[in-house]
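JOB MANIFEST
job_type = single_chain_structure
chain_count = 1
residues = 367
[input]
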Amino acid sequence: MDTAFTKNTDEELIQIVTPAGHRTEPSEYSDIVADITTEKLRDLYEDLVVVRRIDAEATALQRQGELGLWAPLLGQEAAQVGSARALQGDDFVFASYREHGVAYCRGVDPTEMLRFWRGSTQSGWNPYEYNMTTPAIIVGAQALHATGYGLGMKFDGVEGAVITYFGDGATSQGDISEAFGFAASFASPVVFFCQNNQFAISEPVTLQTHTTIAERGRGFGIPSLRVDGNDVLAVLAATRMALAHAREGSGPMLIEAFTYRMGPHTTSDDPSRYRPAALDDEWKLKDPIDRIALLLEHEGAMDDAFRARVKERADDTAAQLRSGCLGTVEPGPMSIFDNVYADPHPLIDEERKNYAAYLAGFEGALS
């Protein structure tokens, strides 16, 4: 296989559960998640399964013409669920466009996730209701927003931390470097969470950097962790550590969650054109859901009744998602002027009037 796809570094990944579903030797990271009982582990497994089902249903809806686009997260469930479940209620999330699993864990109605991709809203949900922003399409911009928000929290004396998500490709954007530099200089309480899924649309991460993304963070003076992104417990532990570091006033931390995008970059992409099939086969053996299922089996906590309950929950969520998507009331053309300003504005009033007159000119032609 081409070494561009297999190049590794000597830096060991933080890991608590192996791909075969066995716990590693006790460490400071396993101590951080010592409170995760068997029942809580089962809850994490359910999260992973439901999130994957949401993603699969949304992908199907896009293929059926009900969504304009969708950014799948297949294979990245552990990175998202593990990090999201480390958050506290007053922490704030600045997302990219792929964090559907994080949104689910923050309590966002899955139907609300689809409205943006269906084109029936200009946003998606109220960020302050869930302490999480809606999808950010400008690659890397959200890291700057998170850094600034974190500084605002620091200056206002507000407790809590900020976390921002981005992919490996975003680290080639100037916005990420600027955010790293600014956050390090002014000790912004922000956790930079990079889901290194190894491919920025069509280019392997090894083409973008000759070192790890964690090392890039250290170059800015930011303490950085490199974690097995398919190990939900390891991700949970690393994120808890990073958030604690930020909350105590010690400044930013970077987490590089080393994972794999098992599907396309978006539903407009064909990964088979640039990614060898053998790599897909290799990473199927590291599936984040299978890993926790095996762990539960080894610990006697997996049975047919539990599997059936989780499947029913996932199927019900998918059914509600589809129903909500198809039942969405599409916005009328005049709604484009809603929510431009918080208060009435004469310019918007004039534009609304002119646009209404323009649309009225088509009424006779369409009848």
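[summary]
Strands lie at 92-94, 162-167, 190-196, 199-200, 203-204, 224-228, 253-258.
The radius of gyration is 22 Å.
exit_status = 0
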